[in-house]
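Hi R.,

Here's the chain you asked about this morning:
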Amino acid sequence: MEYPYLPKAPIREAIIDIRVKHAPNFDVTNFRKFRNEFSEDFPVMEDRKAFSAKINFGPKKADIQKEDDEIDAIIFRSEERGEVLQFSKEGFTFNKLKPYTNWDDVISKAKKKWEYYIQASKPIAITRIATRYINHILIPISSNIEDYLENTPKLPSNGPEVFDGALSRIRLIDPDHDAFVNLTQTIESKGKKAAIILDIDAFKKQQYEIEDDSCWEDFEELRELKNKIFFSSLKPKAINKFK
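And here is the predicted structure, written out as tokens:
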């Protein structure tokens, strides 16, 4: 299905995510070897540590013992380009922040860096793929939310009439493509503006062989599903803001 091109698309962050299964002896610090090779496009490299603690419940009080923090990911950042690579134990993630470019640019960059990920980690299989888009839409605080959103929160008939914010989250299933969507819709007041945050996480829980290119074809299906949810969630008044 064709959707209108939005040159001012309200995308705050686009995410390409691939979850994997590793061998038990996998060492996440192997990814550090890409520091020099990535330095031009991703000049910042960071370790991400997972906090862990053990709680022993005694007769009088609980004793909390902090264990050594374990490195669970290597992060490569480009503040100038608004791009982040996460090479972790759980998998590979490419984040594109502002300024957003386009789908072809995002997916091609993710695909190229994925090759580095599998080169260093040699995962056994892919277990989940996802594309997640977080959209941020500002409207005047005095606006009627129903003019912008297809589905809006309903106020109690006998409750206060001043609306200050809302949060909703639903899970959708696309049986034709064996895919799922987590749709989170948040409305917040921001001074003289109201912010509508539309968070669309489209994913497949499916096992792929590492060299199976069909996962990238399925990413195109997820993109189509993500677009369908986006344009179905907004009314023309909201969509026209970004043309």
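One quick note: Helices lie at 35-38, 103-121, 214-233, 236-239.

Cheers,
M.
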